[in-house]
Amino acid sequence: MHDFTGAEAALGRVADVEKAARARSGWYARYLWVFAAGQLILVPIAVLWHGFVPALVFVIVNAALVTGLSLYAARQRVVRRGFGAKHGLIVGTWGAVFALAASLGNTVFVNSPAFAAAATTACALPLAMGAWLEMWRSS
Fold it and tell me: Which pTM does this prediction carry?
């Protein structure tokens, strides 16, 4: 006969860690929802400002903020497997869309409220999708 008590205990500890990771991952969904909501203010400012230099300064400051928040997020005690890659994909996608929106908003679509609305939606979308998926996975 085999003694499975040690293996059962190890599997129980693994299940407890996974349960804790799921329960504590709600912080990341909230982080993404807030960041997505912030696009309602940040993007119109970035694309409706006059001139390339103010927009560039705004992008650099915003990128620094995102980097700081990303480093904070990566240092959370409990994160799920694959968190770094998922976070990098979400923020990287947002960054590419935001950079394109800021560039086009200051060169091609200068002072266009319609473009600002479309760009705001486009920039918020990767963040909102990430938040929704995180909420779905943590339930």
Answer: 0.73
